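Re: [help] complex structure
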Amino acid sequence: MSSQFQAPKGVSEYFPPRSNAFEYVVRTLTSPALAAGYEPIELPIFEDTELFTRGVGESTDVVSKEMYTFEDRGGRSITLRPEGTAGVMRAVIEHNLDRGQLPVKLFYKGPFFRAERPQAGRYRQFYQFGIEAIGVNDPQLDAEVIAIAYQGYKRLGLTNFTLHITSLGDAESRAKHRTALVSFIEKLDLDEETRSRAAKNPLRLFDDKRSEIQSKMHSAPLLMDFLNEASKENFVAVKKALTAVGVPFEVNPRMVRGLDYYTGTTFEFVHSGLGAQSGIGGGGRYDGLMATLGGQNLSGIGFGLGIDRIILAMETEGISLTSMKYTDLYVVALGERAREESFVLVNQLRNQGFVVEQSYGERALKGAMKAADKSGARFAIVIGDAELSSGSIELKNMATGETVSVTLSGLAQTLAEKSRLL
Ligand code: HAM
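Output below.
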């Protein structure tokens, strides 16, 4: 006898009532992106493995340890997408989206996959909402992208988070810093594996969680101190634009993002209520990614926000998630004729834009009213033979218990007025 099936280890799943929060979070994060002219893009969940090894970088944990890679039936190496930027760039190049008006502004949402050790806020299948703005390098665009994320969190009611930003500068600044950092690292006493990680990308050592590495890196040269004039000016302009639109930030020159494609402005939103997995979103500019993937040499900037962690963060801030299901009216029908007529009424109201639920089958009034209560509907009505013949019903406000008499034909009008009032 096989036991009951269970979801694979470490995946996040959403079902009612929490799934209402999921839907609400995605909708809320999307609205500031729509307001800034971003358009949706839907992409495959799996891609050619090389897209990620080349795009995200072999020195990263994401590529070296965490990819779900398999051979498909045609012998091709396929990987479940661990992040969204490489796929967006592949699609922009493949479909020539960069040959029209620039920047190309896109948003996406969906599942991503990383074979990490599961823990609170860290899953093997998780969800992101992301945007990418491609083809223009302007500090205002950097600030726009960051402000969209900030607005999204604010609209969700989050307050206990901080925006960390830094600049990785332009190619010249990074090259100078790299030389200094490599010679600093050469003098350190490191194991073979760490040394080979550093050889691929020396910045990775700033990101190493081991305390002995952290203390060795304490006096390492920081990129911030190697920015040339142009990079400095650019970073000043980004900070100025953020301040102008009321987005608070902290400059964190030791921040290292987990993906290799970043250049220039990079950022992370950190929530104070989440323990170790505190990053609720992050992103930055990527100057060379498009060219690396075989496209034009255009810059881009974007972010990915972790929907799972945002929901956890909302919970720690006491933001009520169960109330995120919205129903205008619950209709209870008693008796055969009433059930037939109310079914038509329910459909009419739904077509008029109201959210309406109803009882099914022959239910006793008490049980049906319990269901009405549980549904969270703002109003309820009971329709029986008496109501049908009088054409009048009692509209009950489920929060206050108050009732008002309304005609069946005037129900939609009354509901609309009450919705506007509330
Ligand atoms: P990332 O920092 O790797 O960036 O991921 C973005 C966000 O996804 C994180 O801040 C976190 O909230 C969430 N996240 C990442 N891994 C997990 C996990 N295992 N479980 C739960 N949540 C997770 C990127 O993915 C870039 N593509 C962002 C970007 C877009 N940069 C430029 N454009």
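The chain has a mean pLDDT of 94.
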